[in-house]
Design goal:
By secondary structure, the protein is α+β, with helices and mostly antiparallel strands. It is built from 8 helices and 11 strands. It has one domain. The strands form 3 sheets. A 6-stranded mixed sheet has the order 7-6-5-2-1-11, sandwiched between helices. The relative contact order is 0.18. The C terminus is likely disordered.
Length: 260
């Protein structure tokens, strides 16, 4: 079952606003929410002060028991805590799906793709890649290889997301978001993905790891340093998985009620 709650969010202008946000998403019952996540319109909130519409970056647990997806979403400015989040996610999944779950659910556990992402745009990228029949781990290796080949395109702090697949033109489109806010698109051949797929066995450490690996992990230091919480609309409560915050029970996101 999905869980929603009203939270106080603070705009970068300093004004606070009340907004209903998802603490947990059982997405098979919410196809329209899935579409909004991919479109980038989910958790869009208008500030009651400056009226700017922003994406509220919070933490939530995304589960899809039809597609076997289990994705923990954390705010992008906590990327530097990826190791703590990964450990918490693996423990939660193990408890929910292998320890506390009934036999029918336990039998499903090995079929799940368990992932950790930082930012709703990263969640959207995973869903988009899976919908397109692509392996998200190969996509991450492809992105790292693109960076190595075209460093001139990537200022420090650049976030890189797959946003388009055109098999007729045999192209992939990726969006580059710079720390200063500018966005550009680059197009590459699908052969770039296939070459990355053939190089999976030789991928650098940390690139194809699960639940969290890839471009964001490789460049975590620069991305964390340039992704400031103050630049986003964010929930006022603490959002680190190891903080004692009654609004968010440890280890950092709600226990899924689907496994009960």
């Amino acid at each position: 079952m999905s869980t929603w709650a009203v939270h106080t969010v603070r705009c970068r202008c300093g004004v606070t606003t009340e907004a209903q946000l998802a603490d947990g998403l059982h997405i098979s019952r919410l196809p329209e929410v899935r579409e909004r996540i991919i479109a980038g319109t989910f958790h869009n909130v208008a500030c009651s002060g400056c009226k700017e519409v922003s994406v509220v970056e919070t933490k939530t647990l995304y589960t899809d028991f039809e597609q076997f997806h289990w994705v923990a979403v954390a705010p992008p400015w906590l990327l530097g805590d990826w190791a703590t989040w990964s450990e918490a996610l693996e423990k939660e999944f193990h408890h929910n799906m292998r320890v506390a779950a009934p036999p029918l659910v336990r039998d499903m556990a090995d079929r799940f793709r368990v992932r950790l992402v930082f930012g709703l745009d990263a969640l959207a990228e995973k869903l988009f890649a899976w919908d397109a029949g692509l392996d998200d781990r190969v996509v991450e290796l492809m992105k790292v290889r693109l960076h190595a080949a075209r460093r001139d395109l990537f200022p420090p702090g650049t976030r890189l997301r797959l946003v388009g697949v055109d098999r007729h033109k045999w192209t992939l489109t990726l969006r580059l978001s710079e720390a200063r806010g500018a966005t550009t698109s680059i197009e590459t051949s699908l052969d770039t993905y296939l070459l990355a797929e053939s190089a999976m066995d030789d991928a650098p450490a940390g690139v194809t790891d699960v639940p969290f690996g890839g471009f964001d992990r490789v460049f975590a230091a620069s991305l964390t340093g340039l992704t400031h919480r103050a630049a986003h609309m964010h929930v006022v409560e603490s959002m680190r998985p190891f903080d004692a915050d009654e609004s968010y029970p440890l280890p950092g996101y709600p226990v899924s009620e689907d496994s009960e």
